[in-house]
Structures are given as C-alpha cells and as structure tokens.
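Researcher: Let's do a round of design. I'm pasting the structure tokens now; please hold your answer until I've finished.
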C-alpha cells in the first residue's frame, strides 16, 4: 500500500504490540550480567567500530551521550578505525582477535557474519543479557530468531536498515510517460517500464561496484522466490539448482541489462546520485540512501520516491549493526554497560535519529523520527523479516565472498546463467 507523500512501504498482518517472546537463547547459568553502574563503576570500555565520519560518527556520538548519562562512572574509549568502508577496521579486528587482544566490544553486522567469530571461540553468548535488559520484549520475534545460532545470541543490534528499497526520480518518470505513483505487483511489471525508459535513451536502473550488484541480486531473488524460499537458500530448504532459482537468476540477468555501463567504476553514492541528478530513473539500495537525498535538500514525495522492490511488498530485508561481547575482554563490566545502552530505548532513539536508520526495538516513538524513518518503523513492526545477503545477515563471510566472486564473473559476461547457478550452489554447499 502507499504511504503518505508518495512513499510505498507495504505492510502485512497485524501490528506487533506487547510482544512476549519465547526464550530463544541459552541459559543464564554462570553468567553475571554486570549491568548497571554498580557492576561497572570505575571501569572503561573500548568500543571498536568503523564509524569515524559523517552520519555514522554522528550516530556514535549520540549513543555515547546516552551512555555517559546512563553509566557516568564508565570511561568510553573510542576505538573507531576509518577507511575502506569498514574493511580496514575488520582487518585490524581480526589481527587483534588472533593475537588475544580483543576490544571490549566491537561492531559487526548481526546474523551469520558472526559465525566465523563464534566458531573460533572468540565471542561470548549475550543471551543472558537479552533477559536482563528485557530485550526479548522489545525486539520483533522474527529478528530474535534470526539472531539466534544453536540456541544462543551473540550480539545486541542497535539499529536496523532495510535493503529492499527502490529509489526513483519522479520527474524522469513523468517525462517518459510513467506514473511515478504506480504500484508494481511484480518484477515483470516493473521491467515493462524499464523497457520504455531504455528505448527512450534513459538509464533505467543505476548500479555500482560488485557489492551493489550482489545487493541487487538478493532483492531479485527475494522478489521472485518469496520470503520462505529466499530464506531457504540460506538454511538449506531451497535447492540452489532448482528451476525456480534459474528463473530468478534470469530475472537478475534481465535487471542487469537495464543498468549503466560504467557501473564497475562507481560506488553506491555515485549510483544514487544518478537518480538525484535525473541521469537514471531508479536505483535499488538500502535505506541509508535516504540521507543522500535529504542532504541535498530533496523532499520525499516531490523530488524522490521510495518503495519496496517490486514483488517484495510485506517483506523487510534487514541488516543491522550490532555489538558483541568478546571472550577474555579486559573490561567486561564496561562492555556489558555499553551493551545495555546500545540496546536501550534511549540509546537507540538517539543513535538512529542521528544515523538515519531505525531502532531494532518496536517500542520507539515514530514521532521522534523523519518521515521516511516512520514508514520503515511501521514496516519493520509488521512485515515478514528476512536476512540480507550482501550485508552480513544471511551467510558467513566466506560464503558471501564466493557469491560475490561468482556474481562479478557473471555480470562481467564471463559466465552464463547455468554456470552462475552452479557456482552459487557450490558456494552454499561448502
């Protein structure tokens, strides 16, 4: 359905309210939470992130402000590492963990991105903290399920982003006889308008470097397969060699045929800028892209529109930044204090108002947030939640790397659909 002022964030089912979640995590035995000022008084906490600039740094600063109010006796030590869109931080983190020198807590994408750390015995379960901080009553059940691995939870999400969003320039659409308020029931309906744009000499769909192409792939898979079969790709219940996956990969091939030829030389801001400048009609990107429009004075519903990728109405393709509790940290009480703030309503409200994402909690007041964020909050509370492939929620890093390699090979013309499908199947078989 269409949200106000031209934003469509389709929702399904009844509003989740007064959630009482079953205990998905492990037991509490042997784990004193150490939360609150008494347990952490006089300590410090090194918080390791890649939030060193822009809205990410603003969000971190806002969260630190709440932390200082909630835990005034704990010193915050900023371990942010700039550069490489997080790659520099991840490389340094891996070196420190292998050397037995972990930060007190580190930022990571919630979900199976953490599996390598878990298997290496580098993370403690935070399931007891979910109970102590009453987070099972604050997060949607689908999210708690996706955070749970073999009965335990290993991170506390502080925000949520949505991956399956289309951003559009309504002027470009109107100039080419396309209704900017049009609602698409499927990819095939959308492709018809992309054909019209392409025939008119307009770039229908902007995309950028390899990871953005994997991002597009995941949303096409979700659109064609539906949430259950899409989730089955990651839990083994959907056969990667099936005909339905073949058809979805053919849809992805068709989608890539509408994209800009210079894509491999761009990153996501440049691809989004093509829509802002009217040099492309559509872009599929996570909802961090809204900041790019708003920073340039663009108004939702007038200068740009946003809606779920056609075929994904009622589904929220999620990724989340979260914080962990490593094994043998020097300041465990301080780390638990930070995790308490990161999961708190006050902390998540302050952080997400500055960063542009939305709280993982369902009890946040939508009136505190921007118009787009309000639509995302509504959808997150009501939609079916699935895990993002490109952003660490659906698979371990090793699997994502193999999928990315196969996707780059395919989109560069070095393989066909059959080869691409076989390589994806092999990546997930390991």
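Researcher: That's everything. Go ahead.
Model: Designed sequence:
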């Amino acid at each position: 359905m269409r949200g106000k002022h031209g934003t469509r964030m389709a929702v399904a089912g009844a509003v989740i309210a007064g959630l009482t979640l079953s205990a998905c995590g492990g037991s509490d035995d042997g784990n004193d939470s150490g939360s609150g000022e008494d347990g952490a008084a006089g300590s410090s906490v090194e918080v390791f992130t890649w939030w060193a600039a822009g809205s990410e740094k603003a969000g971190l600063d806002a969260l630190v402000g709440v932390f200082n109010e909630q835990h005034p006796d704990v010193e915050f030590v900023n371990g942010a590492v700039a550069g490489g869109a997080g790659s520099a931080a991840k490389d340094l983190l891996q070196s420190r963990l292998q050397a037995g020198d972990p930060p007190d807590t580190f930022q990571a994408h919630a979900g199976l991105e953490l599996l390598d750390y878990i298997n290496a015995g580098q993370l403690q379960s935070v399931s007891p903290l979910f109970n102590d901080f009453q987070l099972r009553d604050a997060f949607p059940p689908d999210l708690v399920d996706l955070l749970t691995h073999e009965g335990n939870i290993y991170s506390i999400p502080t925000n949520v982003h949505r991956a399956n969003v289309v951003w559009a320039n309504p002027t470009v659409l109107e100039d080419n006889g396309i209704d900017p308020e049009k609602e698409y029931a499927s990819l095939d309906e959308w492709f018809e308008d992309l054909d019209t744009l392409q025939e008119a000499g307009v770039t229908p769909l902007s995309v950028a470097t390899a990871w953005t192409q994997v991002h597009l792939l995941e949303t096409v898979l979700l659109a064609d397969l539906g949430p259950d079969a899409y989730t089955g790709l990651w839990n083994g219940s959907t056969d990667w060699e099936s005909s339905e996956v073949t058809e979805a990969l053919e849809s992805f091939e068709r989608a890539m045929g509408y994209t800009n030829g210079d894509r491999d030389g761009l990153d996501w801001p440049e691809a989004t800028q093509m829509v802002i400048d009217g040099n492309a009609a559509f872009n599929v990107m996570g909802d961090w892209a809204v900041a790019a429009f708003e920073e340039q004075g663009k108004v939702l519903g007038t200068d740009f529109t946003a809606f779920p990728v056609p075929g994904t109405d009622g589904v929220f393709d999620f990724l989340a930044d979260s914080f962990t509790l490593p094994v043998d940290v020097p300041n465990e009480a301080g780390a638990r204090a930070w995790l308490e703030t990161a999961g708190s309503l006050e902390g998540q409200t302050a952080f997400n108002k500055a960063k542009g994402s939305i709280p993982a909690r369902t009890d946040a007041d939508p009136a505190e947030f921007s118009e787009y964020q309000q639509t995302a909050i509504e959808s997150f509370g009501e939609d079916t939640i699935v895990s993002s492939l490109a952003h660490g929620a659906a698979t371990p890093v090793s699997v994502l790397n193999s999928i990315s390699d196969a996707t780059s090979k395919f989109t560069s013309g070095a393989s066909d659909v059959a080869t691409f499908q076989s390589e994806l199947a092999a990546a997930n078989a390991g």
